[in-house]
Amino acid sequence: QITSMSTLFDTLRKTQVNSNMKLAIASLLIGSAAAFAPAATPMRNSALNMATETTTEKAFAKLPASVKPGVVTGDALVDLLDAAKEQGYAIPGVNIVGTNSINACMEAAAKYGGPIMVTFSKGGGQFIAGKSLANDADEASIAGSVAGAKHVHEVAKLYGVPVVLHTDHCQKAWLPWIDGLVAASEEHFEQTGTPLFSSHMLDLSEESLEENIGICKDYLEKFAKMGILLEFELGVTGGEEDGVDNTDVDSSRLYTQPEEVYYAYEQLSQVKGGAFTCAASFGNVHGVYAPGNVDLQPIILYNSQKYIQEKIGSDDDKPMKFVFHGGSGSSVDDIQYAIGAGVIKMNIDTDTQWAFWDGVRAYEAKYHDYLQGQIGNPEGDDKPNKKYYDPRMSLRAGEESMAARLIKAAEDLKCVNVLN
Description:
Blueprint: H1 2-36, H2 47-55, E1 70-71, H3 74-87, E2 91-95, H4 99-112, E3 116-120, H5 122-129, H6 139-159, E4 162-167, H7 175-192, E5 199-202, H8 209-224, E6 229-234, E7 239-241, E8 244-246, H9 258-268, E9 276-280, H10 299-312, E10 322-324, H11 332-339, E11 343-348, H12 350-366, E12 375-377, E13 380-384, H13 386-389, H14 391-412
Helix pairs in contact: 4-6, 4-14, 5-6, 6-7, 8-9, 9-10, 12-14
């Protein structure tokens, strides 16, 4: 019986050895075959394939799959702007001066259900870094803009909306500021595959048309390598904003001609992978003015679109993406008529500045008697007032007021409930 058991174990052991040898040979054969198999034949259920399928899922029912919550750049930004043009709405582009106004923008977007463009000016960047800092070489403007952009990258996804990180007017003398931001985007691109900023505006409208577009073209070559969009200006936006004063400009320069728009379109289209929008002047001005003092002519945008379409022989009746500067105080009719001509973004600054202040002012008025000292208020001479003078209270009131004004702006721009 012992001999029988020994024979049985020996048989089993030999069977196991043979099985192991067969598995090893099979593995070797499979491995050899795989080495000569085409590299572009992934397993359908591989982790890589599953990850790719996940990234192509639509985050927003009404937007292309490339557009996700958080900062939008590159092809996703172009897709977003194309959707705005096709669906007939414009994105609010809001100048900010710190995290309070940044957060108010994204809070508003989450409430109205649409994208938002957070816009840094050179002065706004400097303010974020600290007004006490030297800025002779734009170091504070660069550092503050970069810091603000990184804040947006960290928190934007939490708001669940697409956010475009943009910079505002940059004159020729201010190009070192943009150079610093491009360097920051290059570093960010090396680390993440995406730029730090979504887009930059170059305002070289004080230069000749040829020099304006020539410089823009040079910068677009750099931008295209990282997926940064260029916004350029033709003509002049009147009024004054953040160090740019055009209050005394010749009125003829407030109106761009279709031939100028086509020239820019033709030149910039030569940049491989380049994406751009045009701030064409049609009488718009920065600031708020009494009715009758501003003569808007958005028909210029329609004429320009038709001119370009005929020149290039396109089926698209809106080949150029326009942006609307100096939008504060404009009538809803003018705004929506301009959107019909291919305006996909409108700048807002003056109105939101007032809204933020108005929120702070209303807070002070409501709690005035609680803000006259650290101790003592209508409830008693020994009652503390810390919870009233805590800076977060008045700043939050400003945020809420600014967000409410932006929701109204989004309604005017037909940018409400455009995600889902």
